[in-house]
Amino acid sequence: MTNPDRRRIAGHLLLLASLLCLALGALLAWQVQAQQDERSALVMTVDDAIGPAISDYFQRGLELAEERDAELVVVQMDTPGGLDASMRDMIRAMLSSSVPVAIHVAPAGARAASAGTYLLYASHVAAMAPATHLGSATPVQMGGGGLPGLGGEEENEGQTDDASAEEEAADPEATDDTANDEPRRGETAMERKVLEDAVAYIRSLAERHDRNADWAERAVREAVNLTASEALENNVIDVVARDLDDLLEQLDGRSVVMDDGQRTLATADLAVERFDPDWRTKLLAVITNPNVAYFLMIIGFYGLIFELSNPGSLIPGTIGIISLLLALFAFQVLPVNYAGLALILVGLGLIVGEALMPSFGILGIGGIVAFVIGSVMLMDADNLNISLPMIGGIALLAAGLMLWVMTRFIGLRRRAPRTGQEELVGSEATAVEDFEGKGHVRLMGERWNARSTQSLARGQAVRVTAVDGLTLEVEPLDAAS
Fold it and tell me: Where is the composition biased (Acidic residues) (predicted)?
């Protein structure tokens, strides 16, 4: 083949490669444009208490929906309530979102209690599946029986106040005194402040979407509840839908209120894209679990104590610092009662003090009592509390440690004081070589000169029978026994 032929073939191949590249680029561009033009609904799932992990997951989902220019965000929700701060972060993100958000309380048997009721009122579309309910939005105060603080980062909501109902059932005659009571308004100035703030907040959400504000106020003041059908009849929700397909079908053509005005939804034939919790959400949920945070604090405390007791070991100190930092992060976002936290730390300090300078149980018992009381006080909420078996288990371990230290201490006090040669006589040693007559043994980590009237093998256990200067007289342990 001549050179001109080679050049001609090379030119043809180059042209063909260029055409293939252009075709591939056009195909990719068409696919990208098709994906951008495809109308979709982003579906998220919230099936736990509202907290920092759920809030982070929800806000990242809204950002993704805005990037994808989604037609609608659907949140399938089943929650008992949760933290007020996290709930408000989610509501702020929802109200400022450029993509409409539909919250669907589903599947059957799900609930939107407490914080879930606020989120449902804040959504652009409020929907429920049959056999679901919402309500019980009365805030509950941490550390005491009254109202919570709906409005602070250290407060919690998500619990219903059923004490009055139980008292009424137990004492029917008391109904005469309470039947005509007005809706709950709070007993103290702080409770009234918190309650009125919660009422105003949920009424403002109801008015924004033209929903029943009076019932919303009752949900806060009286902790009332509604089923899905009752909520629809009372203009609390917009739709009762069995599942996602039914919801999208019913929402087609419905108008919703957005920041920039009214918007008509076109939900027919939407492609469904699911955004499930990833490892980041799951890790954050684990760290902010009250039981995990509590355990991390205990591990961190003892890790630092062991490191200070044995400087240079590094491993306990490293584990302790990491655990303590993770626990502090969790306590920053959880509704922690700091009096309870202080009691826990005091209790742990007293238990360690009992181990270092035994006081016949005075410090130890006081430490265990303070530790248990502080643990119970630390987080007192139905959805964010510390497991009582965990508290009891750690307290029993601390009591066992204290009992072991006390028995060792009492045993040492009962033992007759011995020093010098008296301490060595009767001690067990190990022959470091084969010998008969004179040789060497290892006693208490030290190498000693030794004499024996019997043959000894290397590694054989011996007992000290006498001390002659720096030489030990020994005999085989089996002979001594």
Answer: 152-180
State the CATH number of the domain containing residue 206: 3.90.226.10
Distances (CA, A) of 167 to 27, 75, 161, 184, 220: 72, 38, 12, 16, 20
Report d(CA 219, CA 205) in Å as an integer. 13
Where among 226, 257, 280 does a domain terminate? 280
Residues 255 and 150 in one domain: yes
| Domain annotation covers residue 20 | no
How many structural domains comprise the chain?
Answer: 3
What is the C-alpha to C-alpha distance for residues 206 and 12, in angstroms, rounded to an integer? 70
16, part of any domain = no
CA distance 277 to 46: 9
CB 113 within 8 A of CB 128: no
Domain with 294, as residue range(s), is: 285-413
Each residue's pLDDT, cut to its tens digit, for the chain (481 residues) gives 566 666 677 666 777 777 788 877 776 655 545 444 578 999 999 999 999 999 999 999 999 999 999 999 999 999 999 888 899 999 999 999 999 999 999 999 999 999 999 999 999 999 999 999 999 998 875 444 434 333 333 334 333 344 333 444 444 444 444 444 455 555 688 888 889 999 999 999 999 999 999 999 999 999 999 999 999 999 999 999 999 999 999 999 999 999 888 999 999 889 999 999 989 888 888 998 889 999 999 999 888 888 887 777 788 889 999 999 999 888 887 888 888 889 998 988 888 887 777 677 788 888 889 989 998 888 766 566 788 888 888 888 888 877 777 777 676 666 655 556 667 888 899 999 999 889 999 988 888 999 998 899 999 999 998 888 889 999 998 765 5
* Residue 442's CATH number: 2.40.50.140
Examine residue 133 and state whether it is found in any structural domain, yes or no: yes
Q: Which two tokens stand for residue 272?
A: 């469904």
Give me the residues paired with residue 426 across strands: none
Query: Quick check: 430 and 439 in contact, CB under 8 A?
Result: no
My answer on whether 409 and 433 are in the same domain is no
Residues 247, 341 within the same domain? no
Give domain status of residue 299, yes or no: yes
Distance between CA atoms of residues 138 and 126, nearest Å: 20
Give the single-character DSSP code of 215.
H
C-alpha distance from residue 11 to each of 21, 79, 279, 469 (Å): 15, 67, 52, 103
At 407, which amino acid appears? T
Residue ranges of alpha helices (H) inside 44-110 are: 52-68, 84-95
Same domain membership, residue 435 and residue 304: no
Predicted TM-score (pTM) of this structure: 0.66
